[in-house]
Design a protein that fits this description.
Layout (H helix, E strand, L loop, with lengths): L1 H12 L3 H21 L7 H7 L3 H18 L5 H5 L1 E2 L2 E2 H25 L12 H23 L1
Antiparallel strand pairs: 1-2
Length: 150
């Protein structure tokens, strides 16, 4: 699911379907190499959390933990999922995958509104904040007008 969010963010910027599919595939494959660079005991838990903002890295760290549990013969249980292996637990991976899905989905939705398209007009980069303040401004003006009439 989180890879859909990442792909949605990529396709929002690229105009053609072919270029966005190629870019999404390349980014997907290259992001596994980032996980390999930070795997092992040499990276701290905080570093692995930051790297896990890339969806494939979170998946790679969680799968490493799963493979370790299977290699030891204990299997993945609820108790084993919360234990850390190479400074990262399986539950941390699941939490980061969920967070990545929400994060990249929101970034993709934002870029989909802001990026210029062939049809329609793109919104200003500050449109979420503008909408937030414009509704309060209209309500405030209506209250002032109602107060003047009394």
């Amino acid at each position: 699911m989180n890879l859909f969010g990442l792909s949605f963010g990529i396709t929002a910027w690229l105009q053609s379907k072919k270029s966005s599919a190629t870019a999404a595939s390349l980014i997907h494959l290259m992001s596994y190499y980032v996980a390999f660079a930070f795997s092992g005991y040499g990276s701290s838990t905080k570093t692995k959390y930051i790297v896990s903002l890339i969806p494939n890295c979170a998946m790679a760290f969680a799968v490493q933990h799963l493979f370790n549990c299977e290699f030891e013969g204990s299997g993945l249980s609820l108790d084993m999922a919360s234990l850390e292996f190479q400074n990262f637990s399986f539950m941390n991976g699941i939490l980061m995958l969920t967070f990545d899905f929400v994060l990249w989905g929101m970034i993709g939705l934002y870029f989909d509104q802001v990026a210029p398209r062939q049809y329609g007009s793109a919104k200003k980069w500050y449109f979420p904040v503008n909408q937030l303040f414009s509704s309060k401004k209209v309500d405030l003006l209506n209250e002032i007008k109602l107060g003047d009439e009394e």
